[in-house]
Design brief:
This protein has 530 residues and is of the alpha+beta class. The strands form 5 sheets. Strands 5, 6, 7, 8, 9, 10, 11, 14 and 17 form a 9-stranded antiparallel beta sheet that branches. It has a 5-stranded mixed beta sheet with strand order 19-20-21-23-22, with helices on both faces.
C-alpha cells in the first residue's frame, strides 16, 4: 500500500532505516546539492538500495533519503533523495517488486476476456475497483491549513540552488567562450529581490485545457525570480505546453498549481509517459489503490491534492516571456537559457509544520534514475502492447534515459530489427531515443557487457546501422538543431537471408547440456572450492 502523505512516507522510511536526519544547519544554495549528490552515489548498506553491493551495474547505490531539519533562511525542513533507491521506489509505489506492478498494469490495459457467465460475474468487483481509481472531491485538506495570498512569499520556502551557474549567464557554461558581465537587461529577473538560480524541482505541475478538460500533471522545473514571480519551463512536446498554447490562443493566462508532496505515488505519476488522454490523477489512483482526494484551489479554477504539503497557485502569462536558465540538468551538462513564460503567484497554501520535498539532477546515477527504472519496468507491458516484437528492454544508467535503448526481440523475418526501432521512435516519449540497439532473445539486455559483445560480434557497420531524422530531446546539446536531429539504429541480431550480403553464420560457443549436468553433479568432488 502506498502512503497517504509525505509525512507518513518519511516516517516509514525512517523506521525502515532508509532515512537520515541532518540536524546541522545547511545552506540551500549548493551545499544541499553537494551532500545529496555524494549520498546518491554512495554505496548503501547491503540490501538497502534493492540491489546487492556486488552488482556491477546497479551496485547497491542510492545511499539514504535525507531530511535537513535546519535550512538557512527558512523554517521549513527539506527532504531529498526520497526516491533514490529501488527499495524506496517500491515503498513509494506500495509494491513488493516492479514486475508484480507491471503485471497489474498489463491486466488493466489488456484484460483477458471472460469466457463464461461466472467469469463475467467475477469481473464486476474489478470493474468497480477501476471506478474507484478516479480522483474524489473533498471539502477540506491539510494542504490548506495555512493560506497566504497578499503575504505570499516564495523566498520563505527553502528552494535550493543546485549547481554553481544555475540562473547565470550562458557565457559561463559554454566551453571555449570567454565569460563576460551581463548587461542590466540580461540579468536574471529577481536578482534585486532575492537569491538567483533557485529552482523548484520535485513538484507536480497541474494544468487543464481552457474548458476544464484534460487535467494534466507534469514534472517541469520552475525557476523562482521573486516573492510572487517564477518562470514556467515546459518542453514543447509536453501536455503542459500544449495547454498553455490553447489558453494563449484565447488571449488568456493559464491557471497553474505547483504541488509539493502528497500521496507517495504522485511524484512518480507526474513523470510517467502515459498514453494521450490517460489522466495522471487516474493513474495515481490506480497506483494508490484508491482515488486521490482533491480540494478546490483558493485563487484559481483548479483542484489540488488535499494531502499535499505545499501548493503554489498562480497564472502563466499568455504573452510575457522572461529569460530562464541555465540549469544543471540530468544529462550531466547545463541546459542553456531560453525565453519562457512568466508565472504570477496568487497564493501559497500549506499544512502546519510542512516539509519541502526537492531533488537534484545531474550526472547519473541520481534520484531520477530510480524513478526512470521503475517506469522502464512498469511500462514494459504497455510498450509490448504497442510493439509485440519486444521481449524486454533496458535504458542504461549512463544513457541519461534517452541516449541509449537496448531491446531484445525474437527474430522471425528479415529487417525485423529496423521495423522495431522505427516503431519505438513512434511510441510517445520513446521518440527521443538517440541510439537503439536491437539484440536476439538469448542476450540479456540488462547485462550491458553482453549487449556490447553482440554489437561487436554481429554488426557490420555499413550493413547493420541506419540513420533517421526526427524530434530530439530539447536537452540534447549535441543535436544540430533545438529539439531536432538524427538517431541511429544498430541491428546486433544474427543476420539471415534477405538482410543484405550475409555469409554463413557460425554457431556461438556453448557447452552441451549433458556435460554441464555432469560437472554440476561432480563439482564438490573436484575439491576446487575447498
Amino acid at each position: 500500500m502506498a502512503y497517504s502523505d509525505l509525512r507518513s512516507f518519511i516516517d516509514a522510511l525512517e523506521k525502515a532505516g532508509q532515512l537520515r536526519r541532518v540536524r546541522a544547519e545547511v545552506d540551500p544554495e549548493l551545499e544541499i546539492t553537494e551532500i545529496a549528490d555524494r549520498v546518491s552515489k554512495s554505496l548503501a548498506p547491503e540490501g538497502l538500495a534493492g540491489a546487492p553491493a556486488t552488482d556491477p551495474v546497479h551496485g547497491g547505490l542510492g545511499g539514504r533519503a535525507l531530511l535537513f531539519e535546519r535550512v538557512r533562511g527558512s523554517r521549513v525542513p527539506v527532504a531529498i533523495n526520497l526516491f533514490g533507491s529501488y527499495a524506496r521506489m517500491r515503498m513509494a509505489l506500495g509494491c513488493e517488486d516492479f514486475e508484480s506492478l507491471a503485471a497489474k498494469v498489463q491486466k488493466l490495459i489488456k484484460p483477458e476476456p471472460p469466457t463464461s457467465f461466472l467469469e463475467k460475474m467475477k469481473m464486476l468487483p474489478e470493474l468497480a475497483k477501476i471506478a474507484g481509481y478516479a480522483p474524489k472531491q473533498v471539502k477540506r485538506g491539510i494542504c490548506q491549513e495555512v493560506v497566504h495570498t497578499t503575504d505570499a512569499d516564495l523566498f520563505a520556502l527553502p528552494i535550493i540552488k543546485c549547481w554553481p551557474y544555475d540562473g547565470g549567464a550562458d557565457e559561463d557554461v559554454i566551453v571555449g567562450r570567454e565569460p563576460r558581465t551581463p548587461t542590466a537587461a540580461e540579468k536574471p529577473p529577481g536578482s534585486a529581490q532575492g537569491p538567483v538560480g533557485r529552482f523548484i524541482t520535485l513538484a507536480g505541475i497541474y494544468t487543464t485545457a481552457p474548458d476544464g478538460s484534460e487535467p494534466n500533471i507534469g514534472m517541469y522545473r520552475i525557476q523562482v525570480t521573486g516573492p510572487k514571480s517564477a518562470i514556467f519551463h515546459c518542453h514543447v512536446h509536453h501536455d503542459g505546453a500544449r495547454h498553455h498554447r490553447m489558453w494563449a490562443a484565447q488571449g488568456k493566462d493559464m491557471p497553474v498549481a505547483i504541488v509539493l508532496g502528497g500521496e507517495s505515488v504522485l511524484p512518480y505519476a507526474a513523470t510517467c509517459p502515459l498514453p494521450p488522454n490517460v489522466s495522471e490523477l487516474l493513474f495515481a489512483g490506480f497506483l494508490n489503490d484508491g482515488g486521490i482526494p482533491l480540494v478546490p484551489a483558493k485563487t484559481i479554477s483548479l483542484n489540488v491534492p488535499a494531502n499535499a504539503e505545499i501548493v503554489i497557485e498562480g497564472f502563466v502569462s499568455a504573452t510575457e516571456t522572461v529569460r530562464e536558465g541555465p540549469f544543471g540538468d540530468h544529462t550531466g551538462f547545463y541546459s542553456l537559457a531560453d525565453m519562457c513564460h512568466a508565472i504570477r503567484v496568487t497564493a501559497i497554501t500549506h499544512r502546519e509544520s510542512s516539509i519541502y520535498p526537492t531533488t537534484i539532477v545531474g550526472l547519473p546515477p541520481m534520484e531520477d534514475y530510480y524513478m526512470g527504472k521503475a517506469t522502464e519496468r512498469v511500462f514494459l507491458p504497455l510498450l509490448q502492447m504497442l510493439i509485440p516484437d519486444i521481449i524486454d528492454y533496458n535504458l542504461p544508467r549512463w544513457g541519461a534515459f534517452h541516449n541509449f535503448c537496448f531491446v531484445k526481440i525474437r527474430k522471425e523475418y528479415p529487417l525485423q530489427a529496423r521495423k522495431v526501432a522505427s516503431s519505438i521512435w513512434g511510441a510517445g516519449q520513446m521518440m527521443f531515443s538517440k541510439f537503439i540497439v536491437i539484440v536476439d532473445e538469448d542476450v540479456d539486455v540488462h547485462d550491458e557487457q553482453a549487449v556490447m559483445f553482440a554489437v561487436g560480434a554481429n554488426v557490420d557497420p555499413r550493413r547493420d546501422t541506419f540513420l533517421v531524422d526526427g524530434p530530439q530531446d530539447i536537452l540534447d546539446h549535441a543535436a544540430p538543431y533545438l529539439a531536432a536531429g538524427s538517431k541511429m539504429g544498430i541491428d546486433a541480431t544474427r543476420k539471415i537471408p534477405g538482410e543484405g550480403i550475409v555469409r554463413d553464420w557460425p554457431r556461438r560457443l556453448e557447452m552441451s547440456e549433458a556435460v554441464r549436468r555432469l560437472v554440476d553433479a561432480r563439482w564438490n568432488e573436484y575439491g576446487i572450492d575447498r
